[in-house]
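Hi R.,

Here's the chain you asked about this morning:
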Amino acid sequence: MLLLITSYFALQAISTDFYLASLPHRVEYFQVPRARIQQPLTIFVIGFGIAQLVAGSLSDRWGRRSVALGGLVIHVGASQLCAVAGNVETLIIAR
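And the predicted structure, written out as tokens:
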């Protein structure tokens, strides 16, 4: 159980670190200014903060397990969409 909880906490840090490491490559790949490719990171941090507020209320209503699994499904799906993004707009929406 401790390993599972620790893994959930690590997802945010891992997602941010991987994205930061790939910034120079993404600027070249998408051929956009660096500021534009940093927008998904800003949106991710804002979304993560809002999700913390919403998840607490949802956990009270439907239970922690359901909310944790739902969040994990959303995270995996959005990560897959980020991986196959063909343009920066898709990347921003998925992020």
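Residues 34-62 form the longest helix (29 residues).

Let me know if you need anything else.
M.
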